[in-house]
């Protein structure tokens, strides 16, 4: 599919030639999948899997070294009273906090993700976006969550967005070959249509994204089941066309274990079981983890913990 990048006209023809999304059908299927129930044994597995998929996130102007270090400690041991509780997939912070997180995580296996490229707006000169990315990678980030320039995308400047993603992917390189993985954030709440979500998905995957991500969490609506359905269909179809797998990360507004399980059911039904793995599916969340832990404790002990049993982040 490399020939798709040869000209702006070719790229436009391909993206506009993608089949349109049936809005009513997508929303009806998402709603139907959201009503599925799972057995108790499957629920226990799903809760642990969801915990392992969480990118535990803090992206506030008031973040301090102490706050992100505490978050990193929680990511490694979400429930200090239960050593069988799995760790989360990653801790996601601003680039200037990466070094503080790295001091805590060490070689724990929990990844360090950093937002970059003028997060959350994506409005900055290209050299600034690339410097932002390189700084985070040099500080020790394993993953970069970049935001696309939605203004450029909505104006139809698809090749510009493609080239920015490809350049950021190059900026994720390390001399030792252990390049940071790139997650590309669309801010789907600003893309207006499911057709645009599908176009953005294919554009990002062709440009080299390792993951496609719904939202920054700063704009509403953020992650929704229908939007995630469209993105899961895109990664499924992309693998059929190219043989390459790309991950999906819904972020923003996913707060309960019940919601998380709805997403896992959708992943299994739409993309397939290969995506039921933290390497291929993540939740971007700050409050979801506590509800997952409360539900997990309920299944283990038979009673709910108080809302203040786990730390508030």
UniProtKB/TrEMBL annotation:
The keyword Lyase applies. It catalyses: 2-deoxy-D-ribose 5-phosphate = D-glyceraldehyde 3-phosphate + acetaldehyde. This is Deoxyribose-phosphate aldolase. Keywords: Lyase, Schiff base. It is an enzyme of class 4 (lyase). Transmembrane segments: none annotated. InterPro entries: Aldolase_TIM, DeoC, DeoC/FbaB/LacD_aldolase. The lineage of its organism: Bacteria, Bacillati, Actinomycetota, Actinomycetes, Propionibacteriales. CDD domains: DeoC (cd00959). Pathway: Carbohydrate degradation; 2-deoxy-D-ribose 1-phosphate degradation; D-glyceraldehyde 3-phosphate and acetaldehyde from 2-deoxy-alpha-D-ribose 1-phosphate: step 2/2. Pfam families: DeoC (PF01791). Its EC number is 4.1.2.4. Belongs to the DeoC/FbaB aldolase family. DeoC type 2 subfamily. The keyword Mitochondrion does not apply. It comes from Nocardioides panacihumi.
């Amino acid at each position: 599919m490399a020939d798709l990048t040869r000209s702006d006209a070719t790229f436009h023809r391909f993206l506009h030639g993608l089949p349109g999304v049936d809005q009513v059908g997508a929303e009806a299927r998402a709603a139907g999948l959201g009503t599925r129930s799972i057995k108790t044994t499957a629920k226990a597995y799903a809760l642990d899997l969801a915990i392992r998929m969480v990118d535990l996130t803090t992206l506030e102007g008031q973040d301090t070294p102490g706050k992100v270090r505490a978050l990193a400690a929680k990511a490694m041991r979400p429930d200090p009273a239960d050593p069988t509780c799995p760790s989360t997939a990653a801790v996601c912070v601003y680039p200037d906090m990466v070094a503080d997180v790295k001091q805590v995580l060490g070689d724990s296996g929990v990844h360090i993700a950093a937002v970059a490229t003028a997060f959350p707006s994506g409005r900055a000169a290209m050299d600034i976006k690339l410097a932002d990315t390189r700084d985070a990678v040099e500080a020790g980030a394993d993953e970069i969550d970049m935001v696309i320039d939605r203004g450029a995308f909505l104006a139809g400047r698809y090749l510009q967005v493609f080239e920015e993603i490809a350049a950021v992917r190059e900026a994720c390189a390390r001399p030792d070959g252990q390049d940071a993985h790139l997650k590309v954030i669309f801010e789907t709440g600003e893309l207006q249509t499911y057709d645009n979500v599908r176009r953005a998905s294919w554009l990002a995957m062709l440009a080299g994204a390792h993951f496609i991500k719904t939202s920054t969490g700063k704009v509403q609506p953020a992650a929704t089941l229908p939007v995630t359905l469209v993105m899961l269909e895109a990664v499924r179809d992309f693998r059929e066309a190219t043989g390459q797998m790309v991950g999906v990360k819904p972020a923003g507004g996913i707060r309960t274990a019940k919601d998380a399980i709805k997403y896992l059911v959708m992943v299994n039904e739409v993309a397939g079981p290969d995506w039921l793995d933290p390497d291929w599916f993540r939740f971007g969340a700050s409050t979801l983890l506590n509800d997952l832990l409360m539900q997990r404790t309920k299944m283990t002990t038979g009673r709910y913990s108080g809302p203040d049993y786990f730390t508030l982040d």
